[in-house]
């Protein structure tokens, strides 16, 4: 039972939610700019901050629970037909005839089998352990939006936590009075750096229409490893790539 709960991602999602609200509560309980605005009756900034935190949590669960673009079962074939097709694939090595060696489904171009999810994902980018889900064709854009909102919330929280650090007569008193805020600062600072790096990497890859898997494993991917140029064959220019990624919601036949 415990193993099934862990595999479902319950513990990871619960940890994310608890940590988010624990840091938020710490910012409100200490003498930060947020607390001072609340005491003066100026509720605009506290309400905006809470709305941003709630939005980041909702996006987290949306990306975490969303179907990333799992490849559905194809036409059922007899074992003899399947064996003949696998043999022909070895001989011709045509990308459009790829069949997954794990789930035995026909893989569209840019799809990959995820060992953790045990399913093939269209336009596979990577499996993210923090959301306990794959990032693929259907949730990749929402993953990038989530990173952007999360970064804004983290940077704002970092500024609020800094405003609450108060001076004391001795180092011991200073550390005791600010210990929770200091812990929040460290966590928020580390997460901000990680999210910033992730967001930068994903924006770059999106701008050239390339996935993390294709960028990291180019030498092992059948439709990329024999190309002379490092240029992505799916690149249509920065503007078109960004437009297609954020504004076009449809399944693309990359072949």
TrEMBL record:
Q: State where the protein is found.
A: Endomembrane system
Report the record's Gene Ontology biological process terms: protein targeting to membrane
Keywords annotated in UniProt = Acyltransferase, Lipoprotein, Membrane, Palmitate, Transferase, Transmembrane, Transmembrane helix
Cross-referenced InterPro entries, in alphabetical order? Palmitoyltrfase_DHHC (IPR001594), PFA4/ZDH16/20/ERF2-like (IPR039859)
One family name in Pfam for this protein: DHHC
Q: What catalytic activity does the UniProt entry give for this protein? A: L-cysteinyl-[protein] + hexadecanoyl-CoA = S-hexadecanoyl-L-cysteinyl-[protein] + CoA
Which PROSITE patterns is this protein grouped with?
A: DHHC (PS50216)
Which Gene Ontology CC terms are recorded?
A: endoplasmic reticulum; Golgi apparatus
Q: Which domain of life is it from?
A: Eukaryota
Chief location: membrane
What is the membrane topology here? Multi-pass membrane protein
Q: Which residues form the Palmitoyltransferase DHHC domain?
A: 98-217
Q: What is its EC number?
A: 2.3.1.225
One MF term in the entry's GO annotations: protein-cysteine S-palmitoyltransferase activity
Annotated membrane-spanning segments are: 12-31, 43-63, 143-162, 182-206
Q: Which family does it belong to?
A: Belongs to the DHHC palmitoyltransferase family.
Per the record, the domain comment is: The DHHC domain is required for palmitoyltransferase activity.
Stored PANTHER family: PALMITOYLTRANSFERASE ZDHHC12 (PTHR22883:SF301), ZINC FINGER DHHC DOMAIN CONTAINING PROTEIN (PTHR22883)
Q: What is this protein called?
A: Palmitoyltransferase
Protein's organism: Tetraodon nigroviridis (Spotted green pufferfish)
